[in-house]
Design goal:
The chain is mainly α. It has helices spanning 17-22, 24-46, 66-92, 99-132, 138-142, 144-174, and strands spanning 48-52, 55-60. Strands 1-2 form a two-stranded antiparallel ribbon. A hairpin with a 2-residue loop joins strand 1 (48-52) and strand 2 (55-60). Helix 2 runs antiparallel to helix 3. The radius of gyration is 35 Å and the shape is elongated. Mean pLDDT is 78; it is low at 177-188. The chain crosses the membrane at residues 30-51, 71-93, 105-129, 149-169. Belongs to the synaptogyrin family. InterPro entries: Marvel, Synaptogyrin.
C-alpha cells in the first residue's frame, strides 16, 4: 500500500467495510475466533461424563484429568476475547494518527499472537497425551467425537496464530512513512532550491589571513618588503 504506516494508510482515512472483511488478517482472526469456540464449546458441553451409570459425578473425559479440560477451556476463552479485541483494533487502526501508538498496537499484536501460538501448542500436546491414556467406556465413547474435535482444532489454532504472528511481524517491518506526518514547515515542492547562506550584509571580514599548514618555518617578512597597513 502506497504511503503506508505499519500496514495502514493515512490517518483519518475512510474505512471500507467490504475491503476490511476481505483482508487476510481479518479472515484469519474470524477463523481462529471460530476455532476457539469449537474447542472450549466441545469441552464444556460434551467432555464431562459420568464415571458410571449410578455415579452422578462428572469427570473430564481426558483421562479423568480435570486440569486438561480446565486448560483447554481457559485457552479457548482467552483466544475468544483476544480475537474480538484485536478485531476492533484492526478496525480502528487506520484512525490512529500517532506513529508510536501504531507501533505499540503492532507489537502488542505480535506478542499476543506468539503467546497464543505457544498456549495452543501446549493445549494440543496436553489434550492429545491425555486422550491416548484414556480408557474407553460407555460414557467416554459418547463424548469421543467432541474430544477429537477439541484436539483437532487446537492443532489448527496453532497454525492460524503462527500466521497471525508472521503477519504482525511483517507489518512491524514495514516501519513508518514519516512523510505522512510531516509538518508544513518543509517545502512541498521537491524541486525547490535549498536555501543558501545569507548575503548582502556589505561588511567585509576583518579576520587576518592565516598561513597554510607546514609553512610556519618560512620567513613571512622578507627583507625589503613591508606589510601594507589596511
Amino acid at each position: 500500500m502506497e504511503g503506508a504506516s505499519f500496514g495502514a494508510g493515512r490517518a483519518g482515512g475512510a474505512i471500507d467495510p467490504v475491503d476490511f472483511l476481505k483482508q487476510p488478517q481479518t479472515i484469519l482472526r474470524v477463523t481462529t475466533w471460530i476455532f476457539s469456540i469449537v474447542v472450549f464449546g466441545s469441552i464444556v458441553n460434551e467432555c464431562y461424563v459420568n464415571k458410571g451409570s449410578d455415579d452422578p459425578e462428572l469427570l473430564c473425559i481426558f483421562n479423568e484429568n480435570e486440569s486438561a479440560c480446565s486448560y483447554g477451556i481457559a485457552v479457548g476463552i482467552i483466544a475468544f476475547f483476544g480475537c474480538i479485541f484485536f478485531f476492533v483494533v484492526d478496525l480502528y487502526f487506520q484512525q490512529i494518527s500517532s506513529v508510536k501508538d501504531r507501533k505499540r498496537a503492532v507489537l502488542l499484536d505480535l506478542g499476543f499472537s506468539g503467546f497464543l501460538s505457544f498456549l495452543w501448542f501446549v493445549a494440543f500436546c496436553f489434550l492429545a497425551n491425555q486422550w491416548q491414556r484414556t480408557k474407553m467406556s460407555k460414557g467416554v465413547s459418547q463424548g469421543a467425537d467432541a474430544a477429537r474435535a477439541a484436539i483437532t482444532f487446537s492443532f489448527f489454532s496453532i497454525i492460524v496464530w503462527v500466521v497471525l504472528a508472521v503477519k504482525a511481524l511483517q507489518r512491524y517491518r514495514l516501519g513508518t512513512d514519516m512523510s505522512l506526518f510531516a509538518t508544513d514547515q518543509f517545502a512541498a515542492d521537491p524541486s525547490a532550491a535549498y536555501p543558501g547562506y545569507p548575503t548582502g550584509s556589505g561588511i567585509e571580514s576583518t579576520e587576518t589571513y592565516q598561513s597554510p599548514p607546514f609553512t610556519e618555518t618560512l620567513d613571512t617578512n622578507p627583507k625589503g618588503y613591508q606589510v601594507p597597513a589596511y
